[in-house]
Design brief:
The chain has 12 helices and 5 strands. By secondary structure, the chain is of the alpha/beta class. It is rod-shaped, with a radius of gyration of 60 Å.
Length: 361
């Protein structure tokens, strides 16, 4: 059953409102076919059996045509055919005078065509259906030579039927307008939602592209930073090596023979150079097992108390390691400064020049 309904309501078209009306038209036509089939047994109890069967067969055929037309996408035509073949079977008993009460009772059934019109056509066409119903009634009464408005009861029934159709048309029109406005608003909101979703998807794509580009840029910057860091580390290592070489060259310790080392000092001695001097001298004494260390201070412009203290510390440390320290190259102004400062160097062997110290050995 569901598959059959799904097949019947498969309408060709793209407009959502037309598709909704088309599906409603098909469903109503299918219901009318079912009602017509159920009405067949009732015709056998009437006097006009043949006419009733012909009307039912024509109606079923018309409803089938309505379904076929609507499914092909001709929704407006299918709706009008459906309404027409709902109206005609109601007007036919008036024309053929199937019963004495038909001219008075049939107008009330025309409300059904107005209700169907409210479901299957646009609201403005409801008034056309109302006009067609009223015109059809008067035409049917004219063809059947039915006297109308001849007494108060008949007039009241006819006016009630007409008023019922007008009232039904009015309320159906209002309901259709409200439904159409609601559907238009829903379509507008749906379109806005789709547009917003499309813009959001576009922004998301753009954002992903920007994130990817920024990520690549950050990766490139990180690689550059890593390379620069590595290069900086390499330069720092080279710089440290160069400083070490400079420190070693600034206080060189030169071996004269297996037991004698010479340390020529050149330039001013600050705290760092004094410490470096001590380390270099003691390391060389340890490695060579030298017994004499000749310190040449000819190139030292000033020997103050700090420099003298550093020299004395080196002498004491070397003595502890079994090495004698000889101090050479003390210039007169340096000697005078040492005496003025009260620095006692009497326990240190001194010579005026390096040649003199080497010659006395």
């Amino acid at each position: 059953m569901r598959s059959m309904i799904a097949w019947l309501t498969n309408i060709c078209g793209t407009d959502e409102d037309d598709l909704r009306r088309g599906r409603t038209t098909v469903i109503v036509a299918f219901v009318m076919i079912c009602l017509a089939v159920l009405a067949i047994p009732l015709t056998f109890s009437g006097s006009n059996l043949l006419i009733s069967l012909v009307i039912i067969i024509i109606s079923i055929t018309a409803y089938l045509i309505t379904i076929a037309i609507t499914r092909r996408g001709y929704i407006g035509i299918g709706s009008l055919v459906l309404i027409a073949f709902i109206t005609l079977p109601i007007l036919t008993p008036i024309v053929i005078q199937s019963s004495p009460t038909s001219p008075l009772t049939s107008p009330f059934y025309l409300v059904l065509s107005i209700l169907v019109a409210g479901l299957t056509v646009r609201p403005v066409f409801i008034w056309l259906v109302l006009v067609a119903n009223i015109v059809g009634l008067f035409v049917a009464w004219t063809i059947a030579n039915t006297p109308i408005f001849i007494d108060q009861l008949q007039t009241s029934l006819i006016l009630a039927a007409l008023f019922l159709q007008v009232g039904t048309a009015w309320f159906t029109f209002i309901g259709g307008q409200i439904t159409d406005n609601a559907l238009k608003e829903a379509r507008r909101l749906s379109n806005e939602a789709r547009q917003n979703a499309a813009r959001l998807a576009e922004l998301n794509t753009t954002l992903e592209l920007q994130v990817e580009q920024r990520t690549k840029a950050l990766q490139i910057a990180l690689r550059d930073l890593e390379q620069r860091t590595a290069e900086q580390a390499r330069l720092l290592a080279e710089n440290e090596q160069q400083r070490q070489v400079i420190r070693e060259l600034s206080v060189p310790v030169l071996p004269v023979n297996n037991t004698t080392l010479v340390m020529p000092l050149i330039g001013a001695l600050d705290t760092a150079r004094i410490v470096n001097m001590q380390q270099q001298a003691l390391n060389q004494i340890e490695h060579t097992n030298a017994r004499e260390l000749i310190i040449d201070v000819t190139g030292v412009p000033v020997i103050d108390s700090q420099v003298a203290k550093g020299l004395l510390q080196l002498v004491e440390a070397a003595r502890l390691m079994g090495t004698q320290v000889i101090l050479v190259g003390i210039r007169p102004e340096v000697a005078q400064t040492l005496v003025t400062l009260g620095i006692d160097l009497h326990h240190i062997r001194t010579y005026s020049t390096l040649q003199a110290a080497l010659a006395k050995r």
